Fold:
Amino acid sequence: MKKRPLQLTAALVQLFFAAATGAVDSQTTRRVSEAVESAAVDALPRTAFFATDAAIARGEPGTLIRSEEFGGYDLPADVRATRILYRSRSELDHEAVASAVVIVPTRAAPPGGWPVLIWAHGVTGVAQTCAPSLSKSLGPGTQSLVKEGLSRGFAVVAVDYAGLGAGSQHEYLWKMANAKDIIFAAPAARAAQPQLASSWVAMGYSEGGQAVWGVAEAMATLHDPSYRGAVALAPTVDTETLLPRVGAIPGQSFYPVYAAFGIKAVYPNFDTHSILLPAAVNAYPRLTGQECRLVGSALFDPVKLPAVLDARWTAAPLVQKLFTENQVGRKPIAGPMLVAGADGDDTIPAQFLAARVKALCATGAVVDYQVYPGDHESMLVTSFSDQVSWIMDRFQGRTSAGNCK
Structure:
């Protein structure tokens, strides 16, 4: 991919923020340029494989639309990656199309097939090009899980969520929309790769952690006998306090822009200008249509939250709907769930997560809640051994008693 000239990057930064923040220093311009170039190195083109229309979306959720083997990911030589497009459902239960990547060992499958870990990624962005399937690395965390699956004997299905890669608009932070994309990936992946077993576990991080919590809630009514449990890693909870708290962290003030986009994706009549201020309004088209999280963080590094978000933003009825519809811990779940937090996580503080787990335990759920050393990102590493052990216990049919008190 051709590098974007530094002068063009500087012009973009000025266009976005000059009116709200004044002159932008050379350090910010350099940081944005480095982020753009880093993203370009990992990016893959969005090909005709991902193209969809209303006719393609029609049909039973979980049915496979098409698949293709793809060798362009940075994965071990002894696995095979297959891209899939499949039918899903939106937050409001409209027809939707989602994409994912199915990764299986090339060696012969065990009797009954490879058990499946469905991986739900954290925030990558909201533009179609921000799909993990459109990056050589397949997004943070995927490669480690693939290597572990190769060693221990399971397949990995890395979901994009509808609107990332394929589909229309990503319904960011809408728990059940993303949960459906995870649930319906399971039968679609088996249709594309018959050597997969029926048993599956859902695991997600941050945004994906919220989504797999939604999977566990959905299973209380769906009763899928193949479902073995969920792992929620630093899951998004308490959106009303989360967005302003995270937005106050340097380089993170762009998250309310994503939230506004997510609301509008579900409710097209929502006026994003009703909660966003000029700095965010200026950046909105590019931040939601072209650039992903890494570039968004660099662009917004000099921008403080009061320049992004109207102080009265929580009064908007659809903002309140975002809060209430996507809270976790209030509904019963099916199957066991491992919930993991971090003692130094400023994004999802352990005390907020503990309160949601306590509420979930009160419903009679089987929950194993653990807190690990580190921050929001490093906890993926410090909890990794326990993640995999818990998943293997589920695949091997061991029961979990949880640790609710």
Q: What stands out?
A: The first helix runs from residue 6 to 21. Confidence is low (pLDDT under 50) at residues 1-8, 19-23.
